[in-house]
UniProtKB/TrEMBL annotation:
GO MF term (any one): kinase activity
Stretches assigned to coiled coil: none
The protein's name: Protein kinase family protein
Sequence ranges of Low complexity compositional bias: 250-266
Keyword annotations from UniProtKB, A to Z: Kinase, Receptor, Transferase
Segments of this protein annotated with the region Disordered: 250-311, 341-364
SUPFAM superfamilies: Galactose-binding domain-like (SSF49785), Protein kinase-like (PK-like) (SSF56112)
Database matches in Gene3D superfamilies: Galactose-binding domain-like, Phosphorylase Kinase, domain 1, Transferase(Phosphotransferase) domain 1
Sequence ranges assigned to domain Protein kinase in this UniProt record: 16-299
Length: 513
């Protein structure tokens, strides 16, 4: 059978029935198929007659089939006979690292745990002489069975025509570094488009994970740089093989990543007592009548309190309860009569003609800027990390824009200031601007507002000296403008130099009453 005749319903080796075409590129087609003998889904690659690397693909698949690491995709069959070539492998259900990151931020150590498993599996593959060379977030899976799976070992490279160089181990170590960078930042440091935002750069160099995302542990930042950038960090050498990456990540806690499901977990609704109050399965149930949980001690969510009334029995208790109720009713009646009498005798001047009202308040509203960019009108190149600027207005306090690093707090005496400029789209009234700075003290910032994006048209309307953390800049008088600038005149220390950092900027405009 010629591969040109392959279509849904085609059976290969009298066993594998092709069902759904998943992807097609460069003469190779990926199918979801059914193994009719074992009644299970499988992944099948078929190839057009023009595909020139069939021999290399089949050879790579057969070599990969010899590996037994459960974290690597299992290859079931590979053939090139009578004009028919195909590779049958395990069908993996679950979410890729790309899927996990697309659903929201992943905890750094949770993401690193996935990469640690992949590094260990890839180290085993390298011991057998096999490489990957195409490590992307789509190839790292968290399966529905709660395991890690690395897809495409050897086969991906053969399909794409990627050949291992003299230092293939270093190439895969860098690939693991890219996966780790993506896992802890949500950005992709590779040249190809993999569906994630590109990693921001600083002076032409990829920013470190901690520069991009707050909360990344220092040791993960160092491991990522040692693998991805192939440079020493914290006195440790670069990580040049998957085994070295695996060893560096060996101490990463291995919490289970979020379960693969689009539905929230079912609520554990029950009629009995909360957890901790039911009898252990190994113990007999308590004897006696079932307690009334509504009249007993009150449950506050974590322990039993004493707020509920205690149940009483006996004739004397009933009489006592009746007397107490009658006394309470009498006291309420007397109190109501006294209050009504006092209100009736009150002077007329003390009455309000209508309910009093507090002064109308105007609650500020948040106005989202149209764009943000680095503002460096006094510099030689007129720009200041413009690619990082959107991170200061993305609503995520873990991302940041920062200035270039300078040799002194006064910007190396090169200029009077540098900052971040927001274009609000049109002139708006400004009530205040909330800025989240870095934690190191020593920043001096000004709030400038104007209707043109040039320094001469911007007026300083508020300032803060020697500050850090969360700062609210409030103009002394009514201020309106289209452009809002956070202007650094002094910078706080940063790693032996000085750098201004802004995690988030929020512009507030007066709201209506």
């Amino acid at each position: 059978m010629s591969m040109s005749a392959v279509e849904p319903g085609t059976r290969l080796a009298d066993r594998f029935r092709l069902e759904d075409r998943v992807d097609e590129s460069g003469g190779a087609t990926l199918w979801k198929a059914i193994d009719e003998i074992l009644a299970r889904p499988v992944a099948v690659h078929t190839f057009s007659p023009e595909f020139a690397r069939v021999t290399e693909v089949v050879t790579a698949a057969r070599l990969a089939s010899r590996l037994t690491d459960p974290r690597l995709t299992q290859v079931f069959d590979a053939a090139d006979e009578d004009g028919t070539a195909y590779v049958v492998s395990e069908w993996v259900s679950g979410e890729s690292l790309l899927d996990l990151l697309s659903n929201g931020a992943v905890e750094p150590e949770r993401g690193a745990a996935l990469v640690a498993e992949a590094a260990e599996a890839l180290a085993h593959a390298h011991e057998a002489g096999l490489t990957h060379l195409h490590l992307t977030p789509e190839r790292l899976m968290w399966t529905t069975g709660g395991t890690v799976k690395l897809l495409g070992l050897a086969v991906d490279a053969a399909i794409l025509g990627l050949e291992a160089g003299e230092d293939a181990a270093r190439e895969d170590a860098e690939g693991l570094g890219r996966l780790l960078y993506a896992a802890v930042t949500g950005h992709w440091p590779g040249e190809e488009d993999c569906g994630l935002p590109a990693a921001p750069t600083d002076d032409g160099k990829i920013c470190t994970p901690r520069q991009v995302t707050a909360g990344v542990p220092g040791y993960l930042d160092a491991i990522t740089c040692r693998a991805l950038l192939q440079e020493p960090k914290r006195g440790r050498p670069p990580l040049s093989t998957p085994a070295e990456v695996a060893e560096a990540l060996a101490e990463v806690p291995r919490p289970a990543p979020a379960p693969v499901t689009t539905a929230p977990p079912a609520l554990n609704l029950r009629d009995g007592a909360p957890d901790g109050m039911t009898a252990s399965p190994a113990q007999p149930p308590p004897l006696g009548p079932t307690p009334d949980w509504n009249s007993g001690p009150a449950w506050n969510g974590s322990s039993w309190g004493t707020g509920g009334p205690q149940q009483t029995t006996g004739t004397a208790s009933k009489i006592l309860l009746t007397v107490i109720v009658l006394l309470v009713m009498a006291a309420v009646g007397v109190g109501a009569w006294t209050v009504g009498k006092n209100l009736g005798n009150a002077p007329k001047t003390t009455r309000s003609a209508e309910p009093s009202q507090s002064a109308a308040t105007h609650k500020p509203v948040t106005v989202k800027p149209v764009s943000a960019t680095g503002f460096d009108p006094l510099g030689d190149d007129k720009v200041e990390n413009p690619d990082l600027a959107p991170l200061a207005v993305d609503g995520k306090p873990s991302t940041e824009w920062h200035t270039t690093s300078y040799n002194s707090a006064d910007l190396g005496r090169l200029k009077d200031g540098v900052g971040l400029i927001l274009d609000m789209g049109k002139p708006i009234p400004i009530s205040d601007v909330a800025v989240s700075l870095g934690s190191a003290p020593g920043a001096s910032v000004q709030l400038k507002v104007g209707d043109a994006a040039d320094l001469g048209s911007l007026k300083t309307v508020a300032k803060a000296e020697n500050t850090s953390g969360s700062v609210t800049l409030t103009p002394d008088k009514a201020t309106t403008g289209q452009y809002v600038v956070i202007w650094f005149t002094r910078l706080p220390p940063y790693e032996g130099k000085y750098r201004g950092t802004i995690y988030e900027v929020t512009v507030h405009s007066p709201g209506s009453a």
